[in-house]
């Protein structure tokens, strides 16, 4: 079975671990979000790609869900002594090695997809990890100050430094001119199943969909597209999905509202948490097959059961 999944960072990678446990013989391709990418201290940092790579490759800080295990921060401490910022984004020493390799290869002319493949040769994540695009397409958030003045900040600054205040809109800078990375469209066209993990629908999966050609390929894919809700009850399980959903005009924070936001042209099936079972009828009325199952990634078993439920729904949709 060929499974193609679109993924962000922490939520996406946790789900992917469950997927590999649920379908150990499947060939899994992950289309990773690059909207979070940022250049810091001259180093190209790809937080979501690295979270997937470390999590599936056994290098992740388990408690945190991102960053390296056994990390140290000597470089960050030295930078602070120089007074060199940004002081709101701390790079760990082990992590810096990844960014050094990446930056060096990018500077030598290799595209991000080739660099990611090279980094994965060490980590062996058990999936083929493809950046959505080799082009630069970073997510920026437009904020309106009290006096009505607008400013744009990089998504990392919005989330890590400003802790996700109310946002006016989201811009995927450069995305309109970006092209899907090699292999992305084929991975969609050749998939037996396409999955949307419970990743952020706007700044993770939405940033991937903003690359021209990817949404269209998903809409016309023969394979069923099944997603899992990142919202349980009236709040994201973690993070700021409610804030960025509001910024794209989705004022209601619910599993059904996210399904409607993706829409029936994109989604064939949608899993909501058991607590949201009453929303299933509304999702089905929108033309999306819906099931209610436990959606908390409490541990490896619970996460594998979620992946199994998504694959079961996909199989049902194929018949
Ligand atoms: P990020 O790039 O690190 O923010 O990670 P993702 O975009 O891949 O995933 C973030 C989303 O995962 C958030 O919107 C969370 O609500 C969602 N999430 C995190 N843990 C869980 C969980 O246990 N269950 C569900 N259903 N969603 C979760
Ligand atoms: Ca992310």
UniProtKB/TrEMBL annotation:
EC identifiers of the protein: 2.7.8.28
Membrane-crossing residue ranges in chain numbering: none
Entries under Pfam families matching the protein: CofD (PF01933)
An MF annotation (GO) of this entry: LPPG:FO 2-phospho-L-lactate transferase activity
Keyword set includes Cell wall biogenesis/degradation: no
EC top class, as a word: transferase
Keywords assigned by UniProt, alphabetized: Magnesium, Transferase
Record-linked NCBIfam families: F420_cofD (TIGR01819)
Protein name as catalogued: 2-phospho-L-lactate transferase
Source organism phylogeny: Bacteria, Bacillati, Actinomycetota, Actinomycetes, Catenulisporales
């Amino acid at each position: 079975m060929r499974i193609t999944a679109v993924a962000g960072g922490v939520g996406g990678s946790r789900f992917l671990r469950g997927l590999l446990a649920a379908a150990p013989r499947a060939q899994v391709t992950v289309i990773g979000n690059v909207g979070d990418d940022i250049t810091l201290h001259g180093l190209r940092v790809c937080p979501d790609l690295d979270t997937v790579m470390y999590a599936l490759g056994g290098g992740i800080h388990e408690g945190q869900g991102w960053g390296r295990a056994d990390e140290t921060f000597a470089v960050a401490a030295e930078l602070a002594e120089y007074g060199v910022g940004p002081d709101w984004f701390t790079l760990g020493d082990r992590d810096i090695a990844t960014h050094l390799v990446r930056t060096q290869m990018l500077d030598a002319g290799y595209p991000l997809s080739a660099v990611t493949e090279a980094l994965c040769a060490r980590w062996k994540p058990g999936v083929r990890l493809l950046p959505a695009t080799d082009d630069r397409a970073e997510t920026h958030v437009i904020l309106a100050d009290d006096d009505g003045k607008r400013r744009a900040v990089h998504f990392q600054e919005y989330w890590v430094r400003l802790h996700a205040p109310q946002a006016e809109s989201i811009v995927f800078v450069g995305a309109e001119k970006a092209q899907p990375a090699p292999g992305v469209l084929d991975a969609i066209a050749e998939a037996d199943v396409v999955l949307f993990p419970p990743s952020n629908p706007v700044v993770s999966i939405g940033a991937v969909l903003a690359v021209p050609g990817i949404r269209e390929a998903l809409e016309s894919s023969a394979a069923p597209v099944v997603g899992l809700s990142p919202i349980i009850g009236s709040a994201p399980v973690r993070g700021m999905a409610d804030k960025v959903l509001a910024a794209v005009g989705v004022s209601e924070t619910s599993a059904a509202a996210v399904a409607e936001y993706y829409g029936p042209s994109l989604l064939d099936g949608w899993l909501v948490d058991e607590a949201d079972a009453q929303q299933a009828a509304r999702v089905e009325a929108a033309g999306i097959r819906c099931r209610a199952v436990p959606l908390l990634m409490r541990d490896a078993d619970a996460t594998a059961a979620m992946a199994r439920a998504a694959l079961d729904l996909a199989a049902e949709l194929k018949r």
